[in-house]
Amino acid sequence: MTDFLTPQQLARRTSDAVGAAVGAGRDLGLTVTDARVLHDLFSVVVHLAPAPVVVRVPTVLASTATLDSQERLQRAELDVTHWLADRGTPVIPPSPLVPREPVRRDGFSMTFWHYVEEVQGKEPDYVANSESVAGLHAAMRDYPGPLPFLSSAAPEAVAADLALLATDPGPLSAADLERARREWEVLEPLVRSREAFEKAFPGIDLQPIHGDSPAANIFPGVHGNLYADFELVTLGPVEWDMAALGPDLESAYDRGARRNGMRPLRADVMGFVTAVGMLRAATTLITLAPRLPALAEYVEPTVEQWRATPFAGGPAGPVSGSR
To answer: What is the pLDDT of residues 138-185, one digit of tens each?
Structure first.
């Protein structure tokens, strides 16, 4: 695979992101004297202290991402979270101190959020979180803004990753590559086309969803948990938000669904979204790891997990059946 970034290169990327965030914040009239990094993985998250503002600066993106495509996603995220916050849904809202729009600076596109103090050391309760996701879905159902169909599946990026792996496969064998190619032939049409999806899964309603495992993106604020990181908000089946979490957390979601007047998860759709998620995870981790070496330790376990799942290729595969 491509050479991994060195610690010095990673530190420079973080420093550049912080500098861009501070400069953009000051340009918007914020007083920033003590900026500090709260999180640094796929994005550098910076508190522009003493201002009660946090900037999220994405730094590790799909190879197909552009500033324009990134900005479209960010605008949708800002609009959805603002709409939810106005209706009392517990989310981290956009900052009211700056215009509610992405800001470009120094090659980055960034968004500005209200600072919330975090409860340190709190272990997430994924069962409770999964049960609560149905309530988030109930709150999102009436969002009136336009959203693309399953954009969080990032089909262009998956196709690009598969092309890259064909020439530089990393830990994947020839059999792995053939399986990945054949699986994507089955899954891609249902990801790219709302009409194809609805034909394959009749009776499944589509609605605004979080797009990126909301049960794992709940922020432990000092005044209560808040949904966060709606970067991949999209239109899709609710099952997408529970992909690959397993039967115990699916059951927890179903309890929340009954309480909120929502339908339970359907097994055939869960099979489909989990198949897409596992294929994306196996290919994306390999291609992103050189730019984010912290992912390297997860590559082989994820590939092994994907190998152990049923092939998503026909009537006997995970895209069939119903509950």
So the answer is: 999 999 999 999 999 999 999 999 999 999 999 999 999 999 999 999
How is residue 308 written in tokens? Answer: 């152990």
What is the CATH class of 121-323? alpha beta
86 phi/psi in degrees, rounded to 5: -60, -25
**Residue appearing with tokens 């409770």:** 128
pTM, two decimal places: 0.93
The pLDDT, as a whole number, for residue 313 is 62
Dist. CA 149–CA 192, nearest whole Å: 8
Region label for 203, one of left (φ > 0), alpha (ψ between -120 and 50) or beta (otherwise): left
Q: What is the DSSP string of 124-157?
A: P-HHHHHHHHHHHHHHHTT--S---BTGGG-HHH
For the chain, the straight-line distance linking the first and the last C-alpha, in angstroms and rounded, comes to 42
Q: Which residues contact 157 (CB under 8 A, 6 or more apart)?
A: 62, 63, 64, 65, 284
Report the CATH superfamily, name and number, of domain 1-115: Phosphorylase Kinase; domain 1 (3.30.200.20)
